[in-house]
Amino acid sequence: MIDFLREAQGLFEYTRDLRRDFHQHPELGFQEVRTAGIVARELNQLGLEVSTGVGKTGVVATLEGGNPGPVILARFDMDALPIQEETGAEYASQTPGVMHACGHDGHTAAGLAVARILEAHKAELNGTVKLVFQPAEEGLGGAEAMLADGVLENPRPDRSLSMHMWNEKPVGWIGVTPGPAMSASDRFTVKIIGRGGHGAAPHLGVDPVVAGAQVISALQNIVSRNVPPLESAVVTVTSMTGGEAFNVIPETVELRGTIRSFKPEVRDLVLERFQEIVVGVSEAMGCQVEVALRKITPATINDLEMAERVRGVASRILPQAELDTDECTMGSEDMAYLMDDIPGCYFFVGSANHDQGLDAAHHHPKFDFDESALPRAAALMAASVVEFLDKN
Length: 392
Ligand code: NI
Known about the structure:
Distance between the termini: 18 Å
Strand content: 25-35%
Order of helices and strands: HHHEEEHEHEEEEEHEEEHEEHEHEH
Bound molecules: nickel (II) ion
Helix content: 25-40%
């Protein structure tokens, strides 16, 4: 019986040092050249079979157990965000305007600790572990790029696992939700085209600013009037641009924003109503309209049986853990693309520490987490991999 938590704690300094190094040298999506180089170096040192350049800057390592068995994929994301860091930490970002503000530095470091733990027990393992270090998770298409490069082939995984440091909850908390855990994400750009003119003579033009305001108001009806009350969805207009002068009606106005949902049928309904309302209201206001809707990720839906078993693993190896089965967020995750194809489980590892002030939200310039979450994350991931290797 492997003592996963003890082994992960034994690797604490290794994991923390890597995490701080990644934190100091953050790289945006598809630019993770330095990070991927360190990942490949560490995995090569373990004697694993390593492929680089998978999905541009992704790294995949295959670990063969001593006995035959299933193929289990464990995925860790590596990218940072275009944010100026304000933590003041001694290991703060050295790259202006780029920051690990989501904890992916921790995921990458924990992933390398998982590789070490599993490699040390290679002879006892039944089957194959595919360790996937993914670029560009932050809405740039990293998972899709890895899929296009065949990350789910040769060998094809039977099951997939991934995780996120979770600063909404303290260290000690673990979230494993059966079914939907993170929402689908879609984004839109709407160009409303009127006819510009003098601000004092609105009757001679067609005002796209007023049309845009009507469209924004009408869009609020989708969630309140069309989505069934017991379902969830979000339609948020995050940007409205158009016009520059105080006395000129502009020619066009552009709206941008995001749409979130869980169930495929709710997603279809929201996207259909979005299109109808934007076109219908714009035209009623005398404007023409161009709608660009881009589907970003499906919802992250955990396999029920896998979630149950990962929860069992967590209660076994982290006996003090506070286990939560209800955590569900309108944030989204491109791991959903892999889990659409391969049954999977995506879990959350509480990482906040209120006493130490390590509790800023994800994507905030002051985001930082309690590093004692790192061995817990590595132990739970390694133990979950072994759980599914032993009994697929
Ligand atoms: Ni993230």
